[in-house]
Design goal:
Blueprint lengths: L1 H20 L2 E5 L10 H13 L3 E5 L4 H5 L1 H7 L3 E4 L2 E3 L2 E5 L8 E5 L1
Parallel strand pairs: 1-2, 1-3
Antiparallel strand pairs: 4-5, 5-6
Length: 109
């Protein structure tokens, strides 16, 4: 009986975690240079997502650390993702102010 109660509790905790993740959103945009930026697009997306009931986060200086951060990773399992950047059909790339190093990050399908 104790094992059944533990399993049921774990099941309900899992459902709550999945439900909470689906109410989140993540938008990523970056200022590549003074004349080229995708920050406003990412911020606008977050604003619209919030009006739809999502708790939105905007990352405007994406680094390896920020994208791997547990807080952001939690949102990568979320309901809505928005990536505004340079890329190709299966890649997205950001490089904050062309600083390279930790600021030159991307994702690939």
């Amino acid at each position: 009986m104790k094992k059944i109660i533990i399993c049921i509790t774990i099941f309900f905790i899992s459902i709550q975690t999945v439900s909470a993740a689906r109410n989140n959103s993540l938008a990523v945009g970056v200022e590549y240079s003074i004349t080229h930026s995708t920050v406003k697009k990412a911020q606008m997306f977050t604003k619209y997502a919030k009006t739809l009931g999502y708790s939105g986060v905007t990352d405007t200086i994406p680094t390896i650390t920020s994208l791997q951060n547990d807080y952001k990773t939690y949102r990568l399992n979320g309901g809505i993702l928005f990536f505004a950047g340079e890329g190709a059909p299966q890649k997205m790339y950001w490089n904050y102010l062309n600083k390279n190093g930790q600021y030159a990050v991307g994702i690939q399908q």
